[in-house]
Amino acid sequence: MTEEYVGMHLNPRVDRSPLKERNAAPYLLPSACLGYKYEITCGKPPPGLFFRESEARAGAVMTVSLPPARTPAILPRDAVENVPFADTTAVLAAFAIPPRSEEAVRVADTLRGCRAPPLAGESKACATSLEGAVRAALRMLQDAPCCIWAAASAVPREGLPRRAYVVAAVEQLGGDRHVACHDEPFPYAVFQCHMTGRSATKAYKITLTGNSPTSTTMAMAALCHRDTSSWNPAHPAFELLGTKPGGAPVCHFMPYANLLFGQTMHEAAT
């Protein structure tokens, strides 16, 4: 099975610093709001993280913001094998995290989310390395007819200031099934990867630009969930977009260091 990379890239500024340089400061990730069950408190989602599919058109104006990324070190696969993951107590001890601290609560929430069973029609897995995330996506897309692609938003680690952005271009990405891997709060990078049933999602590359001559143009990966009937009614996207479970599609951008996988539909080259 060939891996084919589309016009976006895995952001080269993703932190691969040594584990000892981990930033232990409390953090809330935008991706915490992207779980279907919405069991983990994500606070108020940043403006423009969620949007309507009708806004994915050239010329549309969207108010978007993303906070600075707090993604910890992404460890290579061989390093991950030597640090604890599944046991909360062992993780807290290994990284000197006070048991009753906010960070300890987030570690426990992440592990609880990883252990939770998938929703009906959903496939899910937690990965502790980039290699693990790729393998999880390949397993979920194992009967793809052709080639697998991977994409990530080319958004600065410093985030996006809240402002109006013009949609310069929209390109639908291949396939009718997609795997999204979201970074989770943890002492090192952990990705929760999930995929819903066939024909349940559409993926896009949306190019945003500011409304001034000096603005930067950014290629953003985005995913639209077309069937939200099994989502928690308290999910913040419903209130923000004025819809409900089973209603209009819910779309969101992929934040910094989040990964999106899918399959092309053309025949493999011979």
TrEMBL record:
SMART domains: BURP
Xref: Pfam families: BURP
Superkingdom of the organism of origin: Eukaryota
Domain BURP: 50-264
PANTHER family: BURP DOMAIN PROTEIN RD22, BURP DOMAIN PROTEIN USPL1-LIKE
Protein name, UniProt field: BURP domain-containing protein
The organism's taxonomic lineage, starting at the top: Eukaryota, Viridiplantae, Streptophyta, Embryophyta, Tracheophyta
